[in-house]
Amino acid sequence: MINLRTNYLGLELKNPIIVGASDLVTKIENLKTAEEAGAAAIVYKSLFEEQIHLENLQMDKQMHAYNNRNPEMEKLFPDITHAGPQEFLHNFRKAKEAINIPLIASFNAVYNESWIDYSKLLEDSGADALELNLYCVPDDFEREGRNILEEQLAIVKEIKKIMNIPVSVKLSPNYTNLLEVVSQMDKAGADGFVLFNKMFQPDIDLEREEHISPFYLSSENDYRLALRYAGLLYGNTAASICAAGGIFQGKDIIKLILAGADAVQIVSSLYKFKISHIATMLKDIEDWMEKKGYKSLRDLSGKLSKKKTGDPYVYKRAQYIELLLKSGELTKEFSLR
Ligand SMILES: Cc1cc2nc3c(=O)[nH]c(=O)nc-3n(C[C@H](O)[C@H](O)[C@H](O)COP(=O)(O)O)c2cc1C
To answer: What is the pTM of this model?
Structure first.
């Protein structure tokens, strides 16, 4: 019997697959399907602070004011503009009642006070953990990066002071030194990190010559960004590591666990292959482990991390140099000569 158990944020999970925050999880039927397919935990769709304020404010003006925080929100999550926090909390409680696996709340706020108030409300609504959706797309040429990080660290510290459930931070990959950011957030009390937040980018419709914010899924191979940082962070932070972004197959999950992730979050693969794909991924992980003679997922954990391999270049320069040296082979493979 293969043991896929893992610990994430102090929660004992039956396997490493967590369904990430998206519109999929707002339907009770989908939550149940995910649980039946074997999901170990689910992150409920984020409560956006704008959702709270927009009820009382002129929507267009406010959308502009919030643009540096959630530039995609207006188009990507159009439905949230009509649902207030009470309705959100009610739906969250219903979701929690419907499943037996942990339900993680996700929150994205703008003003410090709101982070505090609504984090507590989510905890009171039965959340097993809280995921803070932290990112900032800068629109101020004078503001220092350090200043943004300090504001985010203050949020984590304040929230940790009042919460009794674990708190994770869903990070953007766009910091100058992500390792230092993790180290600081670790000290601020973060129990885990989700690597990484998906940055939906704007696009342009050439026919209409207008900006658009199309809905698009991640691509296969996107998981490799998280793989690099899971490999670098393993054994260097007390916090849990959850990889996210472009995880489509069981083999991607095995690689991320080998690099050092404790768990993974998946969304695009469920849109692409349906929620039942979770069962296929789990089977693929078990088959590989059986073939390789592993009995427990913990035996794989961080086996190919920087720390365990002892190779200082493995997640850094060596791969790049190797790639450069192989560029001749690539040229041949793609018949460019
Ligand atoms: C339709 C949709 C809605 C999403 N809503 C949220 C959200 O409310 N909060 C959040 O933190 N991430 C949200 N995400 C991002 C996902 O949780 C996840 O981080 C991202 O899609 C990358 O994972 P994937 O490659 O498996 O899709 C959403 C993604 C999609 C596609």
So the answer is: 0.89
